[in-house]
Amino acid sequence: MKPLFVFLCAIVLFGCSDNTTTYTVHEQVITPRTLTFAHSDAMKTLSITHTCTCPFSWNINVLTSTQVLKDTSGYGDNTQVPISIDRSKLTADTLHSMLEIASSYGRDTITVTVLK
């Protein structure tokens, strides 16, 4: 009985390890990945959040030169970021554009389609 007791005490004193390490990934989360503006749509919403509790700011940049969409920015998680269009500046029947969402947690792009 005494050797078993010593063995159990050694485990408690020295502990044991399974050699696994947990890493938390800090990233931004963008949904949806595409926006389509039908003929009657003037605004859609985008969700921009992140996976930690650190301060978070972001910028939305229009990658395709157009006056239909505008750059914008914000601070903190927002599940209702308004993406508005200026339909009067639409020169073609269909506009295909890309928006880049950039923060200290990375860069993502989404596809935007605007139907005249």
- Give the CATH level 1 class: Mainly Beta
Number of helices: 1
User: What is the overall shape?
Assistant: elongated
Q: Roughly what percent helix?
A: 10-25%
Mean pLDDT: 85
CATH topology: Immunoglobulin-like
Helix vs. strand class: mainly beta
What can you tell me about this protein's structure?
The chain has a single domain, classed as Immunoglobulin-like. The chain is built from 1 helix and 8 strands. It has one helix at 2-14, and strands spanning 28-31, 34-37, 43-50, 57-62, 72-75, 78-84, 94-103, 106-115. Strand 7 (94-103) and strand 8 (106-115) form a beta hairpin.
What's a concise summary of this model?
Helix content is 11%, strand content 46%. It has 116 residues and is mainly beta. The strands form two sheets. A five-stranded mixed sheet has the order 2-8-7-4-5, with no helix packed on it.
Q: Which terms summarize this structure?
A:
8 strands, Immunoglobulin-like, five-stranded mixed β-sheet, mainly beta, 1 helix, three-stranded antiparallel β-sheet, 116 residues, elongated
Question: Any chance you could write out the topology, listing elements then pairs?
Answer:
Blueprint lengths: L1 H13 L13 E4 L2 E4 L5 E8 L6 E6 L9 E4 L2 E7 L9 E10 L2 E10 L1
Parallel strand pairs: 2-8
Antiparallel strand pairs: 1-3, 3-6, 4-5, 4-7, 7-8
